[in-house]
Specification:
- The structure holds 2 protein chains of 2 kinds.
- Chain A is built from 7 helices and 3 strands.
- By secondary structure, chain A is α+β, with helices and mostly antiparallel strands.
- Chain A folds into 2 domains: 75 residues, Alpha-Beta Plaits (2-Layer Sandwich); 66 residues, no CATH class.
- The N and C termini of chain B lie far apart (51 Å).
- The interface between A and B is large, with 57 and 56 residues.
């Protein structure tokens, strides 16, 4: 048996299983990792250092526990921001009007360089006439196949413009 | 007992962010690419809600949405869209391999180049015409056509045919078309250079460093490859801006001890910068990896010395390093430089398409190189039989899109550098036989992480920050341009 094999007892009330798995996966370039359930709510992690490991054997325990803490924190951050992240990405992806996307991008670019003031509502962003014309000319206003391909990415140029 | 940082986590104020220890500090980043350096004490206070609202750091964290109690969702959504605007586009980069013939035998050749006299590896005019038709079926209003090979100048009639046809179709379809040609410059003549300049074809070549390093890597049996590159770089200047010649460096083992000499080579030639790229184990390079390859740590050591030297040069002159610039456009701004490997999902099939000399179509240039090694897994059609819709709807295209989405990558999804990075599923496939790759042991991951560690460490130095900011401001002002071929 390798004398550098480490056995760590983990309390799942403190560090969830997902955090343990995450830390073990991160450590797969340093050690072979095994996870065993000892009893309800308690795990044992067995780390066998690899020859090519860059972390000295005596530091692996400390580094692993740090990584475990970091993963547990990451899970908390993700869990507590899940809804708002889904909302933001869903709103960003699901806009029906590509022209709105362009105006919003311009709005964001302009706003990025000033201090944040109030909350803005996307519905209140008005499209300039000049910008609308540009969108029409570039053929981005098509709403065909909205549910599947609202931006017309898979549409051939000829299919889009053959009548014009 | 639960650690305090977990027990006292402030659910109401702490927004979504990723973090890692860098040096003695915590680097934190969010989905919009904003970042801060926090010492351990401030990090703990921020996470547990104990940072005083009067602390200037609190204001900065709130303005950049790390503290979410006054989150402007409209602004965040808008910026997210701006950073990911390529998702609403279609392929803009179209790589045409005009021939596999080449008069060089580069040690790291990824194109499996053929004898320069064997014309059966040339693209025919008919295939070239069909290729241009396919390109203009793509709905993207901005088209970049990049000529690759082999050595594309060896099949110059096809280059001319493509340029003329593309200009005609661009006028008809109201699109913008730009051209780039990647060449070793050996078959260049004054007439060819005049055509390329008159038609605004940007030229990109390889210059791997001083004569001994360049000629060691890029073997030209009929002469001196290095002398030839220098000759044409000087000739191109006679034709004035913007048709200068840009250079790329492929760093092999031979170059690792000479970072400053390589930088000097470019600087003394009057180039505005250089692009330091590590050699990849694709094509011929895989067979001779023991002679030319190296561990990621060795490239990172080389890179740091080179970047430090370039930053010194920037105290008096302007001179950039393109790998850093590509990352910095994402770190310091929301610019999409269209670098296909550094986006999620990558550009395979949806940002770029490669058209081989025989009409076969691939998701990207790497896919084309894999086919030259006998593996046709990433072929998505042929210009004579299929149309654009077939390429983009192909199951292989969808597979590569899925496997390059960093949100579903185990390691990438929580990596502090996720907003700036990307994966190449084809490189993963070639090195690990797996499109997703195993990031803790993945060489590309180590390289990207290492380069970003270096860049962020420099960003914490105000002098370096100012230089980097100047580089990005020049891009924004249109005063600095690197065409597509130098950073696909």
């Amino acid at each position: 048996m390798n004398k550098n094999v480490l056995k760590l007892l983990i309390d799942c009330k403190i560090y969830p299983l997902e955090a343990v798995k995450g830390a073990c996966y991160t450590f797969t370039d340093t050690a072979f990792a095994e996870i065993e359930q000892i009893s309800k709510g308690k795990l044992q992690v067995i780390l066998t250092p690899k020859k090519e490991s860059k972390i000295p054997a005596q530091n692996i325990r400390g580094e692993f526990l740090n990584e475990l803490l970091h993963h547990a924190l990451r899970l908390k951050i993700a869990k507590n921001n899940n809804s708002i992240r889904e909302y933001i990405v869903t709103r960003a992806l699901a806009a029906a009007n590509p022209a709105e996307c362009g105006e919003l991008m311009q709005h964001a670019y302009n706003k990025k360089n000033v201090v944040l003031k109030k909350k803005s509502k996307i519905s209140k962003v008005k499209l300039s006439k000049n910008f609308k014309n540009k969108i029409e000319k570039a053929g981005l206003s098509s709403r065909k196949g909205y549910k599947k391909d609202f931006a017309g990415i898979t549409q051939n140029w000829e299919d889009k413009h053959s009548k014009k | 007992m639960q650690p305090a940082i977990l027990k006292n986590f402030d659910k109401k104020k702490v927004g979504f962010f990723r973090f890692a220890k860098l040096g003695g500090s915590y680097l934190i980043t969010n989905e919009l690419g904003d970042f801060h350096f926090l010492n351990a004490d401030d990090f703990k206070k921020f996470v547990t809600g104990k940072l005083s609202s009067k602390n200037p750091l609190y204001k900065k964290l709130r303005e950049t949405n790390f503290i979410k109690d006054k989150l402007d969702t409209g602004y965040v959504i808008s910026r997210w869209r701006r950073r990911n605007q390529f998702l609403w586009g279609s392929p803009g980069l179209h790589i045409i391999v005009t021939t596999l013939r080449c008069d060089h035998k580069c040690v790291y050749c990824q194109a499996n180049s053929k004898d320069p006299n064997n014309k059966k590896y040339d693209m025919t005019l008919k295939t070239a015409q069909k290729t241009v038709e396919r390109i203009f079926e793509c709905p993207n209003p901005n088209v970049t056509i990049e000529f690759q090979g082999g050595e594309p100048l060896l099949n110059f009639p096809v280059v001319k045919e493509v340029v003329k046809n593309a200009q005609k179709l661009a006028k008809k379809t109201l699109k913008n078309v730009t051209f780039t040609l990647v060449t070793n410059l050996t078959p260049m003549t004054k007439e060819k250079l005049k055509f390329l300049t008159d038609n605004k074809v940007n030229i990109c070549t390889s210059l791997d460093g001083p004569r001994n390093i360049h000629n060691l890597n890029r073997v030209y049996t009929k002469g001196d490859s290095y002398a030839n590159v220098l000759k044409w770089c000087k000739n191109a200047k006679k034709f004035g801006k913007p048709h200068h010649i840009d250079g790329l460096v492929t760093v092999t083992k031979a170059a690792l001890d000479f970072p400053k000499k390589i930088v000097d080579e470019y600087f003394n030639m009057g180039m505005q910068g250089l692009f330091l790229r590590p050699v990849t184990p694709l094509g011929m390079a895989k067979g001779v990896w023991g002679k030319i390859g190296y561990a990621p740590e060795k490239f990172l050591k080389f890179y740091e010395i080179a970047l430090d030297y370039i930053l010194e040069i920037n105290k008096k002159s302007h001179f950039t390093e393109m790998t850093a610039v590509v990352f910095l456009t994402k770190i310091l701004d929301d610019i999409d430089f269209n670098f296909m490997d550094l986006r999620s999902p990558c550009g395979a099939g949806i940002g770029q398409i490669a058209y081989h000399y025989d009409g076969d179509v691939y998701t990207c240039d790497e896919a084309r190189m894999v086919s030259e090694m006998g593996d046709m897994s990433f072929c998505i059609g042929n210009v004579h039989k299929d149309k654009y819709g077939d390429f983009i709807n192909h199951s292989v295209t969808k597979c590569l899109v899925t496997s390059s989405c960093t949100d579903v990558q185990t390691t990438c999804s929580w990596c502090v550098y996720k907003p700036y990075c990307g994966v190449c599923p084809i490189c993963n496939y070639m090195s690990e036989n797996d499109l997703y790759g195993h990031m803790p042991e993945n060489s590309w991951c180590k390289l990207h992480k290492g380069i970003l560690d270096i860049i962020f460490t420099k960003l914490s130095d105000p002098m370096c920050y100012d230089i980097f900011r100047r580089w990005i401001d020049k891009i924004n002002a249109g005063k600095m341009n690197y065409h597509q071929s130098c950073f696909k």
